[in-house]
Design goal:
This protein is an all-alpha fold and 324 residues long. The protein is 70% helix and 0% strand. It has one domain (17-222, 229-307).
Length: 324
């Protein structure tokens, strides 16, 4: 591990639009399915220790992939970079994702959990306003429209036979959304490895380690006697939820506007509701259809507002010989 700063390097070119779209689709769809995976996992496994093992395993696997492709030197970081990645590990995997597992373990349904986590864009906007960075009116409109659609999904569906949400579980999940939003907001301001995939490795390793230690301290115990359903859920969360979706999210934070990245919190609940219908035979009610349509509209509004605009080239004066 080195201790000095990196030498100056030329700025990275803007990522291709296709890569941003592909990463967004992964985060939209795969993360929407992880709420169901977590719900299945915590039926038998403890939330923090199992979640920590999930992230640590994914961090080790991603680190091995990077080392095989580019050599071990690619994983070298400075102490400040390691500290920045560890802080993100605390805010995102531990407090953001770990507390979601705790909330679902306490009885929060996976679909309702996704709806509560959808408050992340509002917290990000609040942090931006507090820092003096006021988003444009169209971005604010999209965020508020998305929240309105999600609120309709929650409150209009209370009489539709949905499972009761324990108040403590709801409070824990809302706090998790605040922590995730704060970590996402602060990431561009931290000293991190230039390679975002290396950042993801140390972020998952540190966050997973904190989760395991915390879980053991509060009395959780992990065994190998779980059923195939639990192991399949844990394996899915490692390979798809962490290695693929989490790494895509970290890459997006470094390569796309934060308000655009935050739109995943609008789409995830729609995916979670669909999977609830497909896997758990949950009813698709009018609030689901109407609220889901508003959510999709909000995504379109925010993406339109945050899409980079091409800067027109300055006009070049015509040569004197061509002037009349």
């Amino acid at each position: 591990m080195t201790s000095g700063p990196h030498p100056e390097s030329p700025p990275r070119p803007a990522p291709r639009t296709g890569l941003v779209v592909a990463a967004l689709l992964v985060v939209y769809v795969v993360w929407g399915s992880t709420y169901l995976g977590i719900r299945i996992m915590v039926e038998e496994a403890p939330p923090l220790v199992s979640g920590g093992l999930r992230f640590m395993t994914a961090g080790v696997l991603l680190g091995l992939v990077l080392a095989v492709r580019s050599g071990v030197r690619r994983l070298r970081v400075t102490r400040r970079e390691l500290a920045g990645a560890a802080f993100l590990g605390l805010m995102l995997p531990m407090l953001g994702n770990g507390l979601v597992s705790v909330g679902e373990d306490l009885g929060a349904p996976s679909g309702v959990t996704a709806l509560l986590i959808a408050s992340i864009p509002l917290w990000i906007v609040w942090f931006r306003v507090m820092s003096g960075d006021l988003p444009g009116p169209l971005s604010l409109l999209g965020v508020l429209l998305g929240f309105a659609g999600l609120a309709y999904l929650v409150f209009a569906g209370q009489g539709s036979g949905s499972r009761e949400l324990p108040l403590v579980a709801a409070g824990i999940i809302v706090f998790a959304s605040v922590c995730w939003a704060l970590g996402s907001f602060l990431q561009p301001r931290l000293t991190l490895p230039r390679d975002v995939f290396v950042t993801a490795v140390y972020e998952m390793l540190s966050g997973g380690a904190i989760m395991v230690v915390t879980g053991l301290l509060v009395g959780e115990r992990f065994t190998f006697d779980y059923g195939a359903r639990t192991w399949l859920a844990l394996g899915y969360l490692v390979l798809f939820g962490s290695m693929l979706a989490f790494t895509s999210y970290v890459w997006l934070l470094a390569n796309a506007p934060i308000s655009l990245v935050a739109t995943y919190a609008y789409v995830n609940p729609v995916v979670a509701v669909f999977l609830g219908w497909l896997v758990l035979a949950e009813a698709v009610t009018l609030p689901v259809v109407v609220g889901g349509g508003v959510v999709v509209l909000a995504v379109v509004v925010v993406i339109t507002a945050e899409r980079p605009r091409r800067t027109p080239l300055p006009e070049t004066p015509a040569p004197e010989s061509l002037r009349q």
